[in-house]
Amino acid sequence: MKRYNIDVAIIGGGAAGLAAAIEVKKAEFNPLIMERDLELGGILMQCIHNGFGLKEFKEELTGPEYAQRFINEINELDIPYKLDTMVIEITPDKKIYAVSKNEGLIEINSKAIILSMGCREKTRGAINVPGFRPSGIFTAGQAQRFVNIEGYLPGKTIVILGSGDIGMIMARRLTWEGCKVKAVVEIQPYVSGLLRNQVQCLEDYNIPLITSYTLTKIHGKDRLKGITISKVGRNFDQIIGTDRFIECDTLLLSVGLIPENELTRIAGAEISPMGGAVIDNNLETTIEGVFACGNVLQVHDLVDLVTAEAKRAGKNAVDYINERFGKTQKEQRKIRLNSGENVTYIKPDYVNFNELLKNLIINFRVKHPDRRIQIQLKDETNRIIYKLKKPYVIPSEMNELKINIGNLEINTECNELIIDVIPQPEPLID
Predict the structure, then answer these.
(1) Which of 41, 53, 309, 390 is 20 to 30 A from 114, alpha carbon to alpha carbon?
(2) Could you tell me the residue range of the domain that residue 325 belongs to?
(3) 202-252 pLDDT tens trace
(4) Pair 294, 357 in one domain
């Protein structure tokens, strides 16, 4: 069995893994990227639409163009990577075991690990759809690969269940290819993807969006013949008598993404209820020296945000090595971050306060859309220590707070901070 000794092992060669590796290399440490696919770039390689890079490069790029810029930098910096390599185990002492066709079983010993495995789509089994199991049912990402990479059309008359970003983008893509997209059906009363995709992909192409409806029956035994959708109430219960039949030969599912955290669980890291690893403000998991970033941690709206988070993970991994194998460790005080009533989740899960902590980045999503709101950071006694006005919040857009910790008055005995989103007590003034 071959053995490698490196500074930072990076699992996943998508946007997050590439950005993290570059950050580590620029700090003059030795990274190694392990990617199970046959090429670097991750899911970006099948996202041939534009809209990437507006924050990172200040210009509009396609997915492959965005990825190629990082791949070029990886090659210029001579960062090693292993393709077609599947990581099968991470031990608590940061040993990694992987298998590949060329090298067989390999062992990697590292001082720090960055997890950047991305996420996967929910399938039909995750939403309990009744009916037969005919051909013609795909996830939206699977159909995207068929069309953009393999050159096959999944069908001719399409219905898309769920209004995630990939689903709306594929509605436009299949329309370009001459297919008839009959409807995008969404169980919520609002789209679950970005508003810009609702406008550019659905409204601009007159593709019907049917909200507050869900799939209740699949028709067809060998090949899909059509589907039945039904209106749902406030608790998502089917309303009797509202059934609508739509004839189609293909159903695409765009019903959510799940962080790919199987390796994180194997390593023994704690997983939050929303699926990502429990982390502190340094993106470090509950295992010392193991960091997480990108969609394996939380599903991001934009790849530019993934890149920014991955750069932080790379920098923090370098700081960890310098501290762990160099200077003595700092005294830290751990404070838990919890979600308020209209907050789905919050990252980081806790904050390690020390004398060097200046800025704190907090990401969260809301459960329900709201207008004219105030975001509040409160301590366990409900004392507001930070507040920010916003004109609106919606579940499909991740919110980011950049807080100067030095300006906050946090009690030395405080053990918990709460992020809450409430209707604004006074009129919004710009």
Answers:
(1) 53
(2) 2-120+258-329
(3) 999 999 999 999 999 999 999 999 999 999 998 899 999 999 999 999 999
(4) no
